[in-house]
Design brief:
Helix content: 40-55%
Strand order of the largest sheet: 3-4-10-6-9-5
Largest sheet: 6 strands, mixed
Number of helices: 15
Order of helices and strands: EHEEEHEHHEEEEHEHHHEEHHHHHHH
Number of domains: 2
């Protein structure tokens, strides 16, 4: 077989299955484990790694077991030139690779084949590489000589001991990264207002960077409030917040009367009360105009608090939409024309 040096990017364009490929590498020893570190072009990785059984080609295998939408996001990220992919792809050399160490231990050599390497970590990234037009060199870690049991254990270790960054923290630092959309910036402004305004019933009850028992996280808040933003003609947080604050104050007062004030912090209840906000707001406008005072909201919400049992709020259903439907039904029983 011919040997092909990976440093020649132009040659990589015509890389064919069956050729021998070489890359400069470093051997790393961690306790009793040894692996090789190197960089490889993304288009090469996309064609010589697989994620499922050996009877499938790489692309078919990826499509069967992975999230194509997530892979497309990675491809778009590469093609739009937004940033880098610094985390290592982790692979296990397979028999088809005929993996060897040459050049006084400074070079690895393998046969370029659709099943040269089993992916231990990085399946979605490699699937994304296969969909991208852009080519990058990315860090790679290669284990050689692992048994199927060792491959499985390594997969489990990587996917249980290396936890992803919480979504709450990512939302919290997007402002610092200047990576917020207009909607995300508005939601952040509203979240911070509820957490900092001395007139907010949620003062001290908002958790910006992590999930916390008995507090509202950014993820829960955004999921609840995002759908109601379309109710407002304005996109100004200073105009939207007073109306939402009056609404939450009225809800909180009603829950206090039911001896169930803590239930507002339950994610299901919190999302359910915002699910019915557009309907409640419309009734307020019909009765009292658009001042959106706490008392106006309280008048509309009163039938709901008379019909819904505290126990239902303290042990809510899993679906916030189911609970919102019960709220809607209770509101309708108290609605009279005239």
């Amino acid at each position: 077989m011919a040997t092909l040096e990976s440093a020649d990017d132009e040659t990589i364009e015509v890389l064919a299955y069956g050729v021998r490929v070489r890359y400069s590498t470093s051997l790393v020893t961690q306790s009793s484990h040894k692996f090789f570190t190197l960089t490889m072009p993304t288009d090469v990785l996309a064609r010589c790694c697989f994620a499922t059984n050996r009877e499938e080609d790489p692309i078919t295998g990826f499509q069967r077991v992975l999230d194509e939408r997530r892979a497309q996001e990675i491809a778009d990220y590469m093609d739009l030139g937004f940033g880098t992919i610094p985390s290592s792809i982790v692979l296990s050399a397979q028999p088809d690779a005929d993996f060897k160490v040459v050049g006084r231990g400074k070079t690895i050599e393998f046969t370029f084949d659709p099943h040269s390497f089993l992916i231990i970590d990085g399946q979605h990234r490699i699937f994304g590489f296969s969909k991208a037009k852009t080519k990058l060199r990315v860090p790679v870690v290669i284990y050689n000589g692992l048994t199927k049991q060792q491959e499985s254990r390594l997969f489990i270790d990587i996917n249980t001991k290396q936890r992803p960054v919480p979504s709450e923290l990512l939302l919290d630092i997007k402002k610092l990264a200047d990576a917020e959309s207009d909607e995300e910036a508005l939601l952040r402004e509203l979240f911070d207002a509820f957490g900092e305004d001395s007139d907010s019933p949620l003062l001290g009850l908002m958790s910006p960077a992590a999930k916390s028992a008995g507090k509202i996280s950014r993820v829960t808040f955004n999921a609840a409030v995002r759908p109601v933003l379309a109710t407002f003609a304005s996109t100004s947080g200073s105009l939207i917040y007073p109306a939402l604050n009056s609404y939450i104050k009225a809800l909180y007062r009603g829950l206090v009367g039911m001896n169930a004030k803590e239930t507002l912090l339950n994610p299901t209840v919190f999302r359910a009360v915002f699910e019915i906000f557009p309907d409640v707001a419309q009734r307020v406008v019909d009765r009292a105009g658009s001042a959106f005072t706490e008392s106006d909201f309280a008048d509309v919400l009163r039938p709901m608090f008379e019909k819904v049992k505290p126990a239902r709020l303290k042990t809510p259903p899993r679906s916030h939409k189911e609970l919102a439907g019960e709220f809607q039904k209770a509101l309708k029983t108290g609605f009279l024309i005239g």
